[in-house]
Amino acid sequence: MSKTKHASRSLDDPALFCNRELSLLAFQKRVLEEAQDSANPLLERLNFLSILSSNMDELFMVRVAILKQRVATGVGEAGVDGLTRGEVLEAIRHEVLRLSDDAYACLRHSIRPALEHTGIRIADYTDLDAAARESLTVYFHRTVFPVLTPLAFDPARPFPHISNLSLNLGILVRDKQGEERFARVKIPNTLPQLVLAAPNTFVWLEQLIAANLQALFPGLEVLEAHPFHVTRDAEVAIQELESDDLLETIEEAVWRRRFSAAVRLQANTGIRPDILALLQDQLEVQDWEVYLVDGPLDLSRLRQLHSLDRPDLKYKPFSPYTPPELQPKSKEDLFAAIRHEDILLHHPFESFQPVVEFIRSAAHDPQVLAIKMTLYRVGRNSPIVQALLQAIEEGKQVSVLLELKARFDEESNIEWAKALEREGVHVIYGLVGLKVHSKIALVVRREGDVMRRYVHLGTGNYNPVTARLYTDLSLFTCDEAIGADATDLFNFLTGYSAKAELRKLLVAPVSLRQRLESMVQREIDHAKKSAEPGRLIFKMNALEDPDMIKLLYRASQAGIQVDLLVRGLCCLRPGVPGVSENIHVTSIVGRFLEHDRIYYFRNAGHEEVYIGSADLMPRNLNRRVEVVFPVESPKLVRRIRDEILEVYLNDTVNAHQMQTDGTYTRASRSETQGGVDSHQRCMVAPAN
Length: 688
What we know:
Blueprint lengths: L19 H17 L5 H32 L11 H33 L3 E3 L6 H15 L6 E3 L13 E8 L5 E7 L7 E5 L2 E4 H7 L9 E12 L13 H12 L4 E7 L4 H11 L6 E4 L37 H10 L2 E5 L5 H12 L3 E8 L7 H11 L3 E6 L7 H13 L3 E3 L6 E2 L3 E8 L2 E9 L11 E8 L2 H15 L11 E3 L3 H18 L5 E6 L5 H12 L3 E6 L16 E6 L4 E2 L2 E5 L6 E5 L5 H5 L1 E8 L2 H16 L5 E4 L5 E3 L11 H6 L5
Parallel strand pairs: 1-6, 8-9, 11-12, 12-13, 14-25, 17-22, 19-20, 20-21
Antiparallel strand pairs: 2-4, 3-4, 3-7, 5-6, 7-8, 10-17, 11-15, 15-16, 16-17, 18-25, 19-23, 21-26, 23-24, 24-25, 26-27
């Protein structure tokens, strides 16, 4: 790798940075490409459309909402990329319209015809035969009608509240005096959104309701019925410093979210202009916040069809591998295996069950005295939480930091926090001004005269459901220094410890940024002193932090080969002459959601690998409690380098290569054509 002469170009030049939101939309385009790819199983393509729709909802609820707030207040007018907030909002609208057109075209012209070819039909109500309509009418009156609540809008009744992400019908009726009135009916999300009209034939629920509206308005003439969908600002503002009770404050903030400002109104292209104008006026939505589509609203509902019993239209099932040393035999075997050596698991290819068993074993083992862990997103019916409750029953000391500020999981986490507290668990809700995003569990066990600490550290949440869908890494260790660091970390989280420097763990916002920067600078220093090329391989969800980007630019200028595996948004521009010629950015989008974070440093042949919960974003480095930890076993370092990082870098099936202008070029070779599918390779269990 040749060394690039340091250019005089300032690394603060806005042209060297991609816009955060536009880069995020480029990721959504890559998700859409999975739906468009005929090589993917048909129901999986449908699922990718559903994922795209959910992702777009979140984009508006959070990123667009924040931009609107900043435009309104005049805060932070231009970003590091040089674009004003108003320019970004305009660009977002342009890209969203293009993505929406492409998504609906994919559904209309590709996926629906392909589904019909396999015997599955998403029909329009008007295309159904008389027998199917009669059957649906019976279903409507028995199941749907009792759930519906028509809400009128007139001088005596105010415009009804439209909840976030709700699907509704805007209805125009005429009374016997000839006066036209508006009413709203919410499409119940508690019922199947695609209703079975005939064998393997489905119709959208809103079409069924629209066809039977006369039952809701007897004595009136139903003139028009148009579906509409509202997205509201979901960025919860929590005044922590003024709060006496964080739990109560977050409960109130989540409640207030229901009444926040609308940031997007979606409707069909055929909606009557006067009805659209009424909705805009009552929802206080401007023209640029209206999105008209030619097709069913809220494509996230397509995920329902993924549950069909059609294995021929889905990915081939696979069973995660469990290493022999972690296969369940006895509680002692698990701790003995960790004492023998550090153990690394690569999820979902290797089972998450050993993580659950680690907590369960600790709960029932009479030698275990205490369990401490952080929880961020645990999901419903969590076996981890159940194990913690069992530990309390067994007389263990249990302490849990349950982050209530985990976006969109606040209500679930509040419920778990209350349940744990009722049983006697010491629950900490989070820290003022910081979101705790780290993934760590500490088990203290008496072994003769020794008090040994066993630690699990991960890149993903303690959630067995997402652990089957996301790629993550887990490390089990009883390393004394890491155990001592874990104790100090929990003392910081639960008490008033102000200890800054830990032995091995890198913790944000205390030491993570400084240590990562120093290790990149060390690579640069090695490159200056040696003819041997340096190398950095970073794998993460997102790369946004300007200071880290500039440091990577300097590494490239020093001749270091920098390979970045960035799933989502990336604000760095690769391939800029004199700046980033030695940087390559790859995004892997495929069967599993890439979620692990890995930081590899060649370090003049003394390789170092760190993994953890932090992306290279200002929020992770400055405003969250993150834990990044070393992998010190040479065997595990080689495994991460050769069996994970290099496999991903050589992917020719799921890989998208980022270009200098921020666009991506997709790999074109399939596995059957001799290509490398990193997900498929990782699913193969070791031969031994």
